[in-house]
Structure formats: structure tokens, C-alpha cells
Amino acid sequence: MRWIFRLVTHGIALVIGVALGIYILPILTAPKGPDAATLTAGAEGATYTGSFTRDLAGSDFLHWGTGSISLSPSRITHIGELAPGPDYKLYLAPEFVEDEAGFEAIKDASVRVGDVKMFGGLILDVPEGVNIEAYTTVVIWCEAFGEFITAAKYR
Questions:
Q1: In this predicted model, what pLDDT tens digit does every residue of 80-120 receive, in sequence order?
Q2: C-beta of residue 69 within 8 angstroms of C-beta of residue 152
Q3: Cα angle at 149 between 147 and 153, to 5 degrees?
Q4: What is the pLDDT of residues 7-66, one digit of tens each?
Q5: Residue 93 to residue 91: CA distance in whole angstroms
Q6: Would strands 75-82 and 122-125 be described as parallel, antiparallel, or unpaired?
Q7: Neighbours of 8 (CB within 10 A)
Q8: What are phi and psi of 19, to 5 degrees?
Q9: Rounded-to-5 percentages of helix, strand, coil across the chain
Q10: CA 142 to CA 85: how far, in whole Å?
């Protein structure tokens, strides 16, 4: 009986350790984000702006974003914070969504702009051939776990 108890408790500890590792590793390996002056300069001359808020239906204490998002035809700048996590992607979507089901329904019509590896502000170049005018919303999505993080309508 003692061996079964040890096996169960050690198994639980292993599962908790792996889960914590998946969550903490991106925080430990995240590159240093741009400083405030660089972010402010990146947001200057933006064609559109939007805001990330924590009060979306798909956001919770592990999946959220705050701050402003600025878009120009060549650059997307986020000044704010994102909940840290693995494998985040920034998408431009044709309509505003605020949860997993909503984004999964329009994911095929959305375009992936790039990887989000920084959680305290970021600047991404808009890939050649992507027209920001064809979309209305920025979505941050965790590709590995299919989790909605946040979204902001910019037009």
C-alpha cells in the first residue's frame, strides 16, 4: 500500500512540475522587450489604434492582455502587457472575437503576422503582401494550446 501511495504522490508532483515548467519556461527565456522610447517611436504615425482589455469573455487570470496596439501598413506596436505563455502568435482577423470558439470560427480567414515572444510590449513588422485594411482586429493566440489570449478592434 505504501508503494502505491508513493507512486501516486510522485506522479502528481511530476505532473505539477511539468505544467509549471511549460508556464514558467517562456518567462525565463523571453527576450528583453523594447524600451518605452522605442515603443513610443514605433507607435508614432500609426494608421489605426486599439486597446487590449482583461474583461473579454475568453480572458482569465492566465490568458489576458492590456495596453494599446498601434498599426501602420508596415508595423504593429503593442505598448502594454500580456500574460506570459508559450507559442503566442499575433493574427489579424476580419472581425472582432473575444474567445476561443469565436477565433477558431474565423481563423482560416485570418492572417498570422508573427510570433509574440515578449510580454511587456512588442514591435512586429507586417509581412509583405498583408494589407491591414483588409482586417479589423488584432488577436493574440496561443498556438500550442489553442488558447485565446486577447483581442483588440482597431477599425
A1: 999 988 889 999 999 999 999 999 999 999 999 999 998 99
A2: yes
A3: 125
A4: 888 889 988 888 777 766 666 666 677 888 888 888 888 999 999 999 999 999 889 999
A5: 6
A6: antiparallel
A7: 10
A8: -60, -45
A9: 30, 35, 35
A10: 8
Q: What is the DSSP letter of 64?
A: -
**Three cell numbers at 89?**
502568435
Tracing cell 515572444 back to the chain, one arrives at 117
| Cell numbers placing 120 | 511587456
The grid coordinates listed for 141 are: 493566440
Give the DSSP letter string of 6-70.
HHHHHHHHHHHHHHHHHHHHHHHHPPPPPPHHHHHHHHTT-SEEEEE-S-STT-BTTB-EEEEEE
How confident is the model at residue 101, as a pLDDT?
96
- Pick the closest to residue 69 from 121, 107, 29, 28 (CA basis): 121
Residue 126: phi, psi to the nearest 5?
A: -75, 125
Phi, psi angles (nearest 5°) of residue 103: -70, -40
Contacts of 19 (CB under 8 A, 6+ apart): none
The grid coordinates of residue 69 equal 496596439
Residue 150: pLDDT band (50, 70, 90) is: very high
The Cα 131–Cα 136 span in angstroms is 11
CB 144 within 8 Å of CB 131: no
